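Residues determine shape. Next comes a sample protein:
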Amino acid sequence: MGIIQAFTGALGGTFADQWKDIITAGHFTEYTVVAPGVYQQTNNGRGTNFKGSVDVISNGSKIFVPENTAAFIFSQAGIEDVVTQAGGYEYRAGQPSIFSGDGFTVSIVNQTVDRIGYGGQTSDQKYLAFVNLREIRGLKFGTRGPMVYHDKFYGADLELMAFGSFSLRVVDAVAFVRNFLPANARYYAFDSAEARQQISSEFMQAFLVAVNSLSATHRISELPSQAGSIAELIADDNSALGSWITRYGLDVVQVGIESIEFSPESRELVKQYSANKMNISAFEGISQQTSNVAAQQKVAQGVQDHGLGDAGGMLFGMNLAQAISPMTAAPATPVAPISSTPGLSLDEQIESVRKLKDLVDAGILSQDEFEAKKKQVMGL
């Protein structure tokens, strides 16, 4: 009974598989990266090949490869052939078919005998799958909870939470199929749970490294506008995701940050840091002002004690001290040499010389400086 069923199945399958097939890519969703090859069995009600065997490609079958896809033909040995150029192709390495000129003996007799040995089915199993080569956008990422990173600006380990999206593109379809795609997978989408589990952990690790690197030059509130820089750092050849190109044939094309912020605990630390910094700046200003005032008062007191008068001497001394650096006692701004004193009357010249003499007595001017300035005032 079994041999009769095997013979019947072998003969029926052999005849059914004589039809040449039309195979093209299945439906791609927004996140589909691998879709199976589908057999076009009917077209507007025309077509009779409904009983052909699964995973059998007859000689002479047509394979249509859409734009931006790569067609993979898999056999028992793995990848048999890859087609990356769009167009229609005729397959010549499948089951012999009398409609392809392979002859009655090879196509019918030999196949039937071979199939009887396998219980009525053929051992020549082959199938097609298509890899999407377009950029697949809108892949979501996010932190499940606060994640620790080292902020170089604050010099401390802080926690952040972020979410956004990124895009991937298959740049090496063979590496992708061999190293990333699960075995025998004919359909795969990046938004599936298994795909997210596989890529999200490495992506988040690379994302934190990029954020940490930019923290020295950008505040965390500025990072959403630095998405391009983050994408470059993530896709850098030395980063974990940069190696995806050689490991998986995948390239991170773009990264978009929708939200990034400190955790409540880290936000409180940053507030304390900012408050302390403001207090220090305020005290620094007060200290500088105090130093200036003290220097001015000291000089003014010296002038007063040595003869420039009471209130006037104090005022003159303070004005004089304002032109002196409190740190080095050097003039804060260079004093232009007096070249002449045009327009002074004789009384004014005498009064100026008298004041200069008072400065000599106060120890502010030397005798030589007094003599030089006296000549300038008097026009000698």
User: Anything to note?
Assistant: The two ends are 142 Å apart (CA to CA). DSSP finds ten helices and twelve strands in the chain.
